[in-house]
Amino acid sequence: MTSAAITKNLTKRYGRKTALADCSLDIPAGHVVGLVGPNGAGKSTLLQLICGQLAPTAGSLTVLDGPPVTGSPRIGFVAQDTPVYGNLSIEDHLRLGRHLNPSWDDDLARERIERLDLDPKQKAGKLSGGQRAQLALTLAIAKRPELLLLDEPVAALDPLARREFLQGLMEYVAETGTSVVMSSHLVADLERVCDYLIVLVKSKVRVTGEVEELLASHHRVTGARVDPEKLGPGRTVVQARHTDVQSSLVVRSTAPIEDPAFTVDGIDLEDLVLAYMSEAGNGRDRILEKQR
Amino acid sequence: MIWLTWRQFRTQAAVGLALVIAVAAVYLSTRSTLLDIARDTGYAACTADCGKLAQQFVQTARTGYLGQLYQAGALLLILLPALIGLFWGAPLVSRELESGTHRLVWNQSISRNRWLGVKLGGIGLATAAVAGLSSWAITAWASPLDEVDGWVVPLTYAARGIVPAGYAVLGFVVGVTIGMLLRRTVAAMAVTLVVVIAAMVGGVFFREQLVAHSTYQEALPADWDGGISLSPDDPNHAIRLEVGPPEVATWVLTNKILNSAGAEYRGPYDPDYCGPNATKGGSGPKGCRDWLTSQNLHQKVTYIANDKFWALQWRETGVLLVASSLLAIFCFWWIRRRVA
């Protein structure tokens, strides 16, 4: 198995609103995949389609070499805002997991709760946001899934809890090699843990690829005012910003750019993603720019 | 799934159990007092022509705390379906949707069908048990009184036998369905209350269609008893007779006085016999009565008698359970197709 999920022209509409449009993706197995995009880009929809909680309006998808199924023991899902039953204790949640999952690993779950220094008798409603997220993650991984999906798991957490959560996740992934798809609207959350990236903007896929490859093939080009069209073949301008005297471009190019007229720098992941996001958002600005 | 259903429901289950125990304890322990009154009034020992003793027994029993228990029992069984719909039915799915926990539980290795099936089945059975046992205790307690007053009198009927369990199950499923549609617990509770009350009021009107009606049609006897109303100023001389139904007619649907042609009798009366200016037939209303008797009038009563009680109960409960099943099927369809 080389793909965790493959989607073909996947589309999901709620009434007239399109949540995901014509999305074709190959999400590789054995990676920690970051799904990044602004709020409302369709990340949650994509993840819920993969775990079978939603049915697509059009298109097809294959998950772990089969059709998506709800309640599959092979997929673990940590939903947005990490919901737990407020009036049940941590112990109750573990029993819930044991009763509802044939592949439940009780030792793993209990060990995790112990390591997190949580009292099993405590009601889940009294936990802090970080502890609640950890409990939800424990439930998802003690299922021993082949594919773990996390929908904005750290969005509501403070920086320390974020770090601890991601650390816990990484330890588990390092031990088991489980495929992970994790969404976030902040690149910073994903930067540390992901080795593969999917950028989703306005229900469309902008760019996908391994993080290292993406970093190697994207460049920030600055120099005197240039026409982006004149950069030469095989080079795509992802983002262009011009002042009267200077241009700053983000360019995708597998071959190195060697032109004395420009300064070529590397680019970090956050700038790279932001370039793709602003490109999608600022189509209008670029037209204005050309007319000037 | 059974464990989780039990874990989430156990507080409500405890309340339901406490209710059943309280009802059983109160009604079974006071039944002997009720039977003592039947004995003391002489009704229990009576073998023939007991009408008067029976009335005396009911009157004595209905005063004091037994009377309050009688009313409380009816009130409880009539309110129970709405209460169960409100507190057991409406929050069942809507609370999960509201707090997002459906995303947690539906991502365990379990299908939505099984999740909903265990909840609907388990709590539906608990509903039937709580309502059925309460109704059984109250029906048994009130049976000496109902024997006198009649089982099929509409208000009594709805709080006896198995019909309360039928309405309770319907109330529960209605609550679940509305909760699933509205996805908001408080709104679902309010709508459930309205819908369950509407269903019970509808049941009152719909009930009489479930069994064949009996008819009583007899000529007005010479010694008929009843009221006469007429207006002396009415140039049409319209008159109305009100004659009580026969004893067998527990639940009276229609009660009419017909003329010899079979149409409802409305006069005209003869002002010489009836009304303030009557001159013939002797003094007082007796002359008018005798004159009316001679008009060849019939009394026609359509009714439902006590012996139809169980036929009505089974049929109405059957209809309620079919309606509940249809709603449940809708729930299964909806949760698969429409709930994300």
TrEMBL record, chain A:
Single GO MF annotation: ATP binding
Pfam family, any one: ABC_tran
The name this protein goes by in its record: ABC transporter ATP-binding protein
Domain ABC transporter as annotated: residue spans: 5-227
Keywords of the record: ATP-binding, Nucleotide-binding, Transport
InterPro entries, alphabetized: AAA+_ATPase, ABC_transporter-like_ATP-bd, ABC_Transporter_VariousFunc, P-loop_NTPase
From TrEMBL, chain B:
Transmembrane is among the record's keywords: yes
Keyword DNA-binding: no
Name of protein: Transporter
TM region(s), chain numbering: 12-30, 72-94, 115-138, 158-179, 186-206, 317-335
A Pfam family reported for this protein in Swiss-Prot or TrEMBL: ABC2_membrane_2
UniProt keyword annotations, A-Z: Membrane, Transmembrane, Transmembrane helix
